[in-house]
Amino acid sequence: MKDADDLIAIHNAYHSMFTGADAAIVLDDLNKTFPWLKQRMSATDPYSLCAMEGERRVLLHIQQMSSEPDPAEIRRTMSMGRDIEAQYPRVPGT
Fold first, then answer.
1. pTM higher than 0.85, yes or no?
2. Which uninterrupted H or E stretch holds 6?
3. What is the DSSP string of 29-76?
4. Positive or negative CA dihedral for 50, 44, 87, 68?
5. So where are the chain's domains?
6. What is the pLDDT of residues 9-43, one digit of tens each?
7. pLDDT in tens, 69-78
8. Distance between CA 18 and CA 70 in Å, rounded?
9. Are 7 and 65 in contact (CB under 8 A)?
10. How buried is 77 (Cβ within 10 angstroms: 0-12 exposed, 13-18 middle, 19+ buried)?
């Protein structure tokens, strides 16, 4: 498990990389290429389902990590003995 300072540094790097006009274009393209909010296939194909879940997790992780970092919240969560990385990916806004 990473310590709080490492996770804050990583969060800051994501935030700096995935904010701004160019980042919005890239994120929009990723969301169109991998439409994780839309059902794209039958749940009967386990290989497709696994691939889609991988895509969804990557996009959710990018979105979560590119939000404005809250170092105090990261430290508080980690001081409670919880692995904050286990919270990722989360659906934005929840």
1. no
2. helix 4-17
3. HHHHHS-TTS--S-TT-HHHHHHHHHHHHHHHHHHHHTSPP-HHHHHH
4. positive
5. 4-87
6. 888 899 899 888 899 899 899 888 888 767 666 66
7. 788 888 887 7
8. 16
9. no
10. middle
